[in-house]
Write a structure and sequence with these properties.
The protein is an alpha+beta fold. Helices cover 41% and strands 30% of the residues.
């Protein structure tokens, strides 16, 4: 708060704090299917999500045993791009791997 004098009157100026909201974040999920090889899923996780062999194997096994695995959490535009890249890469390699995003 800042006080200034304007003539004989005291004027009080308040400074509103502008709250910057964080952008909504989205989880990227890989979904299990009966056709995509485990090795391909590991390759996708390493290429598109910068995981090492151990991290990629852990997520691949989660997808395999639980039906879904979280690859990462990103702002909307990055999540959209990654999902598109994974789906296109799977299609080019003739695998039905499904990759989706949902709000975190």
């Amino acid at each position: 708060m800042v006080m200034t004098k304007s003539g004989s009157e005291a004027v009080i100026l308040t400074q509103e704090k502008i709250k910057q909201k964080s952008p909504p974040m989205y989880k990227i999920l890989l979904l299990n299917d009966d056709f995509t090889p485990m090795e391909f899923v590991i390759e996708v996780l390493k290429i598109f999500f910068s995981m090492n062999q151990e991290q990629a194997t852990r997520i691949m096994l989660k997808v395999h045993t639980e039906g879904v695995g979280v690859c990462g959490v990103y702002p909307s535009d990055i999540a959209n791009t990654k999902v598109s890249q994974v789906v296109e890469f799977a299609r080019i390699n003739q695998h039905p791997l499904r990759c989706v995003m949902e709000e975190n």
